[in-house]
Amino acid sequence: MKLEEIRKIAEGWGVDARKGRTKQDIIRDIQRAEGYSPCFRTKDTCNDDDCLWKKDCIGNK
Asked: How many structural domains does the chain have?
């Protein structure tokens, strides 16, 4: 997912997505806001098929 798309999602959750913040940090803050563990790019596998970030997370390792 492109950073501009992530920033729009972040805005909807009230997450700070200003320039200079990394994609990883923004996504982890979104995960927290959604009530999930901030696990983006911290695992080698993922069993959550509904995760919006799975393709970017696991697919880029």
From this structure: 1
Task: Give the count of beta carbons closer than 10 Å to the beta carbon of residue 28.
Answer: 20
For residue range 13-50, list pLDDT tens digits in order: 999 999 999 999 999 999 999 999 999 999 888 888 88
- In order, the DSSP letters of 1-39 are --HHHHHHHHHHHT----TTS-HHHHHHHHHHHHTS---
- The pTM of this model reads 0.88
Question: Which structural domain, as residue segments, surrounds residue 24?
Answer: 3-58
| Burial status of residue 53 (CB atoms within 10 A of its CB: 0-12, 13-18, 19 or more) | buried
Q: Token pair for residue 12?
A: 């909807």
